[in-house]
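Predict the assembly for these two chains.
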Amino acid sequence: MKIITLGGLDGIGKNMAVFEYDNAMIVVDAGLMFPDDDHPGVDLILPDYTYLLEHAQQLRGIVISHGHEDHTGALPYLLKDLDLPELPIYGSKLTLGLIEGKLAEHHIKNPPFVEVVAGQSIGIGDFELEFFNVNHSIPAALGVFIQTPAGNVLHTGDFKLDQTPIDGVTTDFAAITRFADEGVDLLLSDSTNAINKQFTASEAEVGKVLYSIIKNAPKRVIVAAFSSHIHRIQQVCDAAIAAGRKIAVTGRSMLTNTEIAQKLGYLDIAPGSLIDAYDAKDIPAADIVILCTGSQGEPLSALARMAAGEHRTVPIEDGDTVIISASPVPGNEKAVTRVVNALSKIGAEVYDKERALVHVSGHAGPEELKLMMVLAKPKGFMPIHGETRHLRAHAKLAEDVGIPRSQIYVLENGDCLNLAQGKLSRGEPVDSGIVYVDGLSVGDISQVVLKDRQTLASDGIVTIVCQIRSRDGRPVGKPEIIMRGVSGNDDNELLEDLINIVEKTATSLAKEQRLNSSQLKRALRERVSSVLWERSRRRPMVIPLILEV
Amino acid sequence: MKIITLGGLDGIGKNMAVFEYDNAMIVVDAGLMFPDDDHPGVDLILPDYTYLLEHAQQLRGIVISHGHEDHTGALPYLLKDLDLPELPIYGSKLTLGLIEGKLAEHHIKNPPFVEVVAGQSIGIGDFELEFFNVNHSIPAALGVFIQTPAGNVLHTGDFKLDQTPIDGVTTDFAAITRFADEGVDLLLSDSTNAINKQFTASEAEVGKVLYSIIKNAPKRVIVAAFSSHIHRIQQVCDAAIAAGRKIAVTGRSMLTNTEIAQKLGYLDIAPGSLIDAYDAKDIPAADIVILCTGSQGEPLSALARMAAGEHRTVPIEDGDTVIISASPVPGNEKAVTRVVNALSKIGAEVYDKERALVHVSGHAGPEELKLMMVLAKPKGFMPIHGETRHLRAHAKLAEDVGIPRSQIYVLENGDCLNLAQGKLSRGEPVDSGIVYVDGLSVGDISQVVLKDRQTLASDGIVTIVCQIRSRDGRPVGKPEIIMRGVSGNDDNELLEDLINIVEKTATSLAKEQRLNSSQLKRALRERVSSVLWERSRRRPMVIPLILEV
């Protein structure tokens, strides 16, 4: 069996692992990643799944461990590119429900969905898959035990070991023990929190804190959370109802997901407690909890619009209480801070996870990770789902519990492991990487475009248009110079100087010798760049354009 | 007396407060702020001190509370702009030493420096200033008690209440008690940590952890810290020496500041323990500690270069230990993470403040802040040094200790307080704001330029050059189109289409009626923008340029 990771080893996102045996292939997860400031203007990042497209005929199915976008978000793109309408997608009821919503947004017809439940075994060719419950920050998350004649792999998916989960579903120790008995040749396990606190607190702890804040709040309470965090949403609703308040939901994804979760039976709200956000204004402030999107400070989200006083139905006033029941994803800290400051200015009391336990992680801490290894008794180990530092730290934990260093594989995306007769070895890496989605375009954004954008962002752009007479190469009329984003943009003196320099450079080059236009371009670029550097210590992008007349 | 804040009320940075009495004016602090991603290409942010320039003749002196750049960094720019070579600068020996170094970098002649010590009183016209020790993350930090016939103001500067400080200098409770007896009409106090943990741990705690990590490290130890954090540097050196290691210093500001601090007697390293970084490679890895810059992940810093394998004298190898003995300033989290991942990839063991107590804050937590208020017994209170959420939280603490709400002033930069016969009231606000420093240019970066840069960064730019015949307005030759940072940059089909659209638009407009060039420009911009939006859901900046021939 070949195990190839196409994503998830360079950050918390775009998870994708491929399992190959005897010319058949299954994929576990197809996630996306949200870009950071290094990728200006990029909307989404996908794993480069060229390898799958090249081997599409071998593909037998896609397994999705749970409904988070870093595990499902690449699916619409992958399915479009594969164009295999009969390829089955395996997942739990909620996972498939959330995927169905996403595919509809992309106008993609539903592929054959195969709903699986924990404890169920399915055969896909020579692959025998058994699903088991794991506890995570979304209900109905599954791990998968993959058996082939070449050996057995245990893939945890994302998990934590919450002993008091909201829906009563704990990570299934008994199943893992059983897999250990059958023999786990390789464990793939979630590294997200490998360098965090020893144990991750139970989701139930958050419920107590939410109740106490809501109960004591003098006026309106607004709670921002991840719209896929159904347990958290359940707890907010439970706390609101216990405190005698109604609940109104706002924000597109929050509305969609609460609807799906209710329909599929994952969210239980007493009838009459949920009211329309339009009616919220008719209810006394002390009798309502608003559940909304915007926990990441997204500028167009419900919470950001409330903070800016621009939300259609929910005003925020002095004395209101806002709970940000989430952790900022790395890179979003500043955006969240901006919203918190805007809320503070209005006079709202803001609770975030620094101030009170209004959020816990959905990933296992170091002690839990070690427990998983001790339960699964794997011969080989490969940390997945994390940045390099997380993978290394997780590898260290594996050493601590006695897995031999030689059997621990800290890989990079595209790397390949071979498993034959229960023995692991490195295989040939495959092409991998990342693909940018920008607006409607997938993969059209190259590193060149991003590099350009970074230069444009930090130093701006200067376009020079110079008309020259084709007869003798002498400039005709005044050159035109357009500057955007350049320090000293409105400096007419600088502009005049640059125009003169361009004119002089072009004239003197024409005198000296007949230069072709690319030589003139280079000369103008160098001359103008060096003047701008002297004057401003900046290197804007300089684009000369020569028009022969 | 008028109290006017020109900076420091919209974030941790660019602190500047003005005190006016009877036509005389003193300034406390002149700091800068480092920009975040909202300010692409901006190097520094200064407070807008136009008000000081307009009233330069009334200015009697500038007091600097301590040597951090958010309190000193605007000084070179302010002094240049004021051009008052006789204006005295008041500060402690170390503060003035660090300022001297900064002014030299800017080629500014030293102004009259007046060195002050805690306990000293100086009169500046009707202002009577008494300085007192505060404990902070830099030695020789001072608070100041300002007495005028109109009333008394206590300005804490930045402080914490460390009872086991490295240099034995605690915040001077006795002095503050004495000021309370004389009557504090207004307290200005540091809000940085108003929403943090109740007490800030002692700097001494960090020393123990540093020693234990260094002592147990198998190979080279690299410690990155703030170069102005002399106490931290002292502790790193003490730990290194106690563990039997030599110390090498690298990174420009680290070299400068350790030199200044040693010269002025603030840093005490046994002779022979400090070696040149060039000689570090001749010493066994287990016998050396490298002290360096780069704790913020700055791409050109010593640590970032080591992580990239590009440092001239210090290699980092598998098994080395790296301690990041600092907290990432908000906005730098990603940059630090990038460096940590690069170090992890090499195989270095990385300790940051999440993993061990290798850093503590220099600012007082809520309990300390309340203690300060109870000691100073102020009639009025104004939180300074923080974002809105910190100032609001600090104001809340003031209410908790019994300061009447009506006497608590949460202000914004440019706001003015009047103090007359011990009574506070709101005054007329003055012009204020922020000034960007970009390369060599100060204040030339307008909001327009920044807005342009953001558009350029996210969507790119399209320049259209269209030659038209002045006789009849018909296009001559093919229009030229240059795209940079645009999704689909290399898409020749898109380019062809756009060229055709420009040509067609220009031709049809010429047919219909004689349009002037600004009308043609508008038409081209609208047409091209709408095509790009349809194709890519992006709105690059579109700049049409019409050349009449």
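The two ends of chain A are 66 Å apart (CA to CA). The longest strand of chain A covers residues 127-134.
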